[in-house]
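Subject: Protein record for review, amino acid sequence with backbone structure tokens
Concerning: The relation between a protein's sequence and the shape of its backbone.
How to read it: Take the token row as a discrete description of the fold.
Enclosed: The protein record, placed directly beneath this head.
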Amino acid sequence: LRKFSIKEKKPRAMILDKDSTSNKQVIIHCDMDAFYASVAELDDPTLRGKPVVVGAGIRGVVLSANYAARKFGIRAAMPVGRAKRMAPNAIFVSPDHHRYSEISSQVMDIFSSFTPLVEPLSLDEAFLDITGAQRLLGTPRGIGQAIRGRVHEECGITCSVGIAPNKFIAKLASGHCKPNGLLEIKEDRILTFLHPLPVGDLWGVGPKTAAHLERLGLKTISDIANTPLETLKRALGDATGEHLYELSWGRDERDVIPDEPDQSISAAETFSYDIDDPETILREYLRLTEKAAARLRERELFAKTISIKVRFSDFETITRSKTLPLPISSTQEIYAVVKDLFKALKLDRARLRLVGVSLENLHTDAPQQLMLGQREKGWREAESAIDQATARFGEKTVRPARLYRRREK
């Protein structure tokens, strides 16, 4: 846990309520408003008031769009080319991931000054359990307002805050008060707030599941809540049926887990033009594997499951994965799995738009399988030396020879 000291980071403009002694769980969900675009406006004030889209290259995807740009229908994950056709006068800026991480770190430090129970979900959102902080810091609403004030004052951006007895309702609440708002849903108001919402607002319900539910005549969360549990299980399967039934009644038993370890490490590349040459694609997979594996070793982690992603020119996307007997961290060992997964697809010169590598099922240690006659030193030691050289002399100091076939820029 991060060290918590109220003396070091005392929230300002706080309204204390000495009568706030409730022991009932209170969860806050904080979500930055159009985070990447907001950071772009922060660094270039001339962008304020104009439609701003973060995403570069005609073949790239939109990472963020401010609210002025969203009026044109632009949304995250949309192809940049399509976004430019929808709003040709919008301002498109390249992403600056180092800057996003810098601002995110400041935001998370602010959250941790209110409670040590902070669970980051991404760079721009987190859950906070403020159950034990109320006696010292005041009412949930007062704490939420203080957090919003600190983020705006110290980081120059805005966030929306949802407050509720559990994670699910808190996240819904923050989404319903955007941008730059605060919404508190108390226990006795959960069903009034929740039941009129569409089924697509339930955690875990994607477009396909939502369409299936609507075909069954279940359009609102109230419809699911008032359907017998056994009926839902027969229609959706035991796990999904029970999951949605519990959420439909506002029940979510998940705790806030501070500093949850990485669930996966991934790297992907969208090509500037469709590629159908297997050797070029494998070279790109090696580059992505090198990038992801270096991040894995930097975090002193090992991966047991290796996955690849392939997106075709028509945007159809497929993934394949393999779980190993023992976790690994070596670029060469990981790439051997990636290469086998790709070759097993037998794509036969299909035109690809994007490829990606994901390292999952992460572990903090990894036993080594000893083999008769093996070398005393192997890839693990070699790549540890490479990582040290890279840290000292910069990226691309030591690389696989195959990657030097491409002209470095």
Observations:
- Confidence is low (pLDDT under 50) at residues 1-21, 369-377.
- Residues 62 and 77 are 5 Å apart (CA to CA).
- The radius of gyration is 24 Å.
